[in-house]
Protein: Lipid-A-disaccharide synthase
Organism: Magnetofaba australis IT-1
Amino acid sequence: MIISGEASGDFLAAELLNELSAEFPGLTAFGVGGLKSRAAGLESLYHPNELSLIGLAEVVRHLPRLVSIMNALTARMRADRPDLLVTVDLPDFNFRLAKRAKKLGVPVIHYVSPQVWAWRRGRADKLAGFLDHLLALFPFEPEIYAGTGLPVSFVGHPLVHRAQPKRSREQMRADLGLADDAPLIALLPGSRPGEIARLLEPMLLAAVRLRMEKPNTYFAIALADTLDEASLRAHWPAEAESLSVSIIPNGAYDLLGACDAALVASGTATLEAALIGAPMVVVYRVNALTYAIGRRVIQVPYISLANLVAGEGVVPERIQHEANPDTLCQDLRTLLDDPQAAAQQRQGLARIRQQLSTPPRTAGAIVSEFLHQQLGDIQENT
């Protein structure tokens, strides 16, 4: 049984499922996942967007549906008794399901450490009570769990080898019909409906302002595979109706590799942009209540994965009221007009890539070993 949510989680779940299917022919998996997980053989019982909610207010609004899904997944788990539950990210939902799994005698491996290093540090001690193993993406994370009794393995970040454009910068720009001197700006407003609702408008309005100053600037939106074009159009501001923008599905890496600068929603996409080396501005807005609570409890100086891995402010972060069209336009103007600023950011992004080298053991290898041991124990007891 595998549970994942947004695009980044679906990517990890699909990669893991492909490795497990190669190791265990005839393996069957059910749960929740997106297009990639389903292509890898997952029987997905719900759309992942139903689990990928941002902030307290959004969760409260959808709470009845979340409870219904939780109960249905628990019933399916009780009926089918999977050999293992793998939960991918989504800690607030998945940890509740993991606790239910433990009561049913189903072992649990969680993939992607929760950000206990950012807030709720006491949570690290509690995870050992309902997780059998934790797979971490960053090399600094296992040390956080020292002394908790929970096995934690750094499995490397799969994006180190996956976040690579398929087309060269020149080919991508030619495919877009760009002149050699035309600046290209990539817009990555997120992979969840809530992100689109909050981030698309300021990004597009910043693009309108920049186009007025630099008429030859070209804009393109990378459309996540958890969304469709209609979900973008529903939040398209009237002021940007006449703005020419390409919408590129499943082409984020090519776009980031070809762009001169990018506006990127905080999240995994900032790490992807960093690994590709795209100069960027990180943009994020959440519900006002969520932000007010977060300011009190978050204990790290940055919100973007790019800056957190670097341990310094390599890329600018525009949060809440700073994520406004005028500020974003100015940030883009700096990256376009100041070659030294862009070069300095690229150097910092290169250092991030060096820090995320993948260790020899993959997530698939660790989960396969766990399953072999689990199945061996079951056979010994029968």
